[in-house]
């Protein structure tokens, strides 16, 4: 869409910064792209990776969602938090027009999010949602044991989590929030204006802005030169490539198949979610080839795991032991073991070692068994039944998480 401020605004301070693909010669970068999951992504997508377009994307490392930030300044920072939240919910559920007596920043935000982009294809949104649903528990395994924990290997990407003390909140609460967002954004018609997924996208966008402003105000040691702006647009792109490209690759590794239309649908779904979240359209890939090429450029500025990465990874692994959804300790230990097996199966060995994932016996047994059963299940169960069953499983897991995190113990 034109006219809504989504093109990168190059600030004068950015002119002093000249970002380089600083880790392009590092062993972790080369190993990932020449022999690890990066190589698999290239084979999976047919991507032609190179650093020739690096300069087109580098400025996004210092670019943020100015519209979202202005809304937070005008609404959340001028009144009590619960009052601001109620006000934003009113705008989301009732809409905002040019004639409404609201801050200009609010008008800008809702002018953009209420405007349907010309490229939006609702049939592809439907196909993407259906693949998310029919992939059932494999979707949740992929999000947790590949997308989320794999993201912890990128040390700079994790800095906002660390400085906002996400570790203190605990992995159970973080997982619950991520699951709540993902489930509600990936159902039928979820992204229609005023619908639940649309609401989650707007709220998440403003949470990002609130966190970014808090970091800039209170965390004086933030290293903008190295880490980029907090929750910058380029990091946001990488995160949402996790929900599309990495998610699809994980499903394939676990023995799932998907049609060309479903594959296109996943990218279209996350392109629209990214649009609602204020990610510049230049950064939203249309397909797996583009996504892999974009991801390659971004990884060249990211160092490997550090101590914080290991803490985040172990917090996630130990979530299974802390989570009271399963009643007995042996069940929780077994669930942790299964997640560890899937992590080793889905991620590179080098990444698992950096994150200090425990090495367990027979770690390929469960994933290989799952691959076999997935192929049988796909062949024997109708697509419609898979969608219905998968959606039911997602809603059950989400319900369990929301029930255990509504108490004070997990806030």
TrEMBL record:
Q: Which domain of life is it from?
A: Bacteria
What positions does the domain ER-bound oxygenase mpaB/mpaB'/Rubber oxygenase catalytic occupy? 169-363
Gene Ontology MF terms: oxidoreductase activity
What single Pfam family name could you report for this chain, choosing any that match? MPAB_Lcp_cat
How is this protein named in the record? Uncharacterized protein DUF2236
């Amino acid at each position: 869409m034109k006219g809504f401020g989504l093109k990168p605004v190059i600030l004068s301070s950015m002119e002093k910064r000249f970002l380089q693909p600083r880790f392009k010669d590092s062993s972790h970068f080369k190993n990932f792209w020449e022999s690890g999951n990066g190589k698999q992504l290239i084979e999976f997508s047919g991507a032609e990776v190179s650093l020739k377009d690096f300069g087109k994307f580098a400025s996004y490392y210092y670019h943020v969602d100015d519209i979202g930030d202005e809304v937070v300044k005008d609404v959340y920072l001028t009144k009590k938090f619960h009052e601001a939240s109620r006000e934003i919910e009113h705008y989301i559920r009732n809409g905002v027009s040019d004639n409404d007596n609201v801050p200009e920043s609010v008008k800008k935000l809702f002018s953009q999010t209420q405007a349907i982009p010309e490229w939006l294809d609702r049939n592809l949104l439907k196909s993407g949602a259906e693949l998310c649903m029919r992939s059932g528990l494999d979707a949740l395994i992929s999000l947790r044991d590949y997308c989320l924990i794999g993201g912890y290997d990128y040390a700079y990407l994790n800095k906002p989590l660390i400085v906002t003390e996400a570790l203190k909140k605990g992995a159970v609460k973080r997982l619950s929030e991520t699951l709540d967002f993902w489930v509600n954004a990936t159902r039928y018609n979820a992204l229609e204006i005023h619908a639940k997924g649309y609401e989650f996208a707007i709220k998440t966008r403003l949470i990002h802005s609130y966190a970014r402003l808090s970091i800039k105000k209170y965390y004086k040691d933030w290293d903008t030169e190295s880490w980029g702006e907090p929750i910058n647009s380029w990091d946001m792109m990488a995160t949402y490539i996790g929900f599309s490209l990495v998610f699809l690759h994980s499903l394939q590794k676990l023995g799932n198949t998907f049609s060309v239309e479903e594959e296109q649908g996943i990218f279209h779904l996350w392109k629209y979610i990214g649009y609602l979240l204020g990610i510049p359209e230049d950064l939203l890939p249309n397909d797996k080839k583009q996504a892999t090429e974009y991801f390659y450029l971004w990884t060249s500025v990211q160092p490997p795991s550090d101590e914080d990465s290991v803490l985040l990874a172990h917090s996630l692994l130990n979530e299974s032991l802390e989570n009271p959804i399963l009643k007995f300790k042996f069940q929780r230990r077994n669930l942790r073991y299964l997640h560890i097996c899937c992590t080793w199966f889905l991620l590179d060995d080098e990444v698992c070692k950096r994150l200090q994932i425990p090495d367990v016996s027979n770690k390929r047994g469960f994933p290989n068994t799952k691959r076999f059963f997935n192929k049988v299940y796909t062949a024997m169960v109708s697509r419609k039944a898979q969608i219905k069953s998968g959606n039911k499983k997602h809603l059950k897991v989400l319900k369990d998480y929301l029930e255990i995190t509504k108490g004070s113990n997990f806030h």
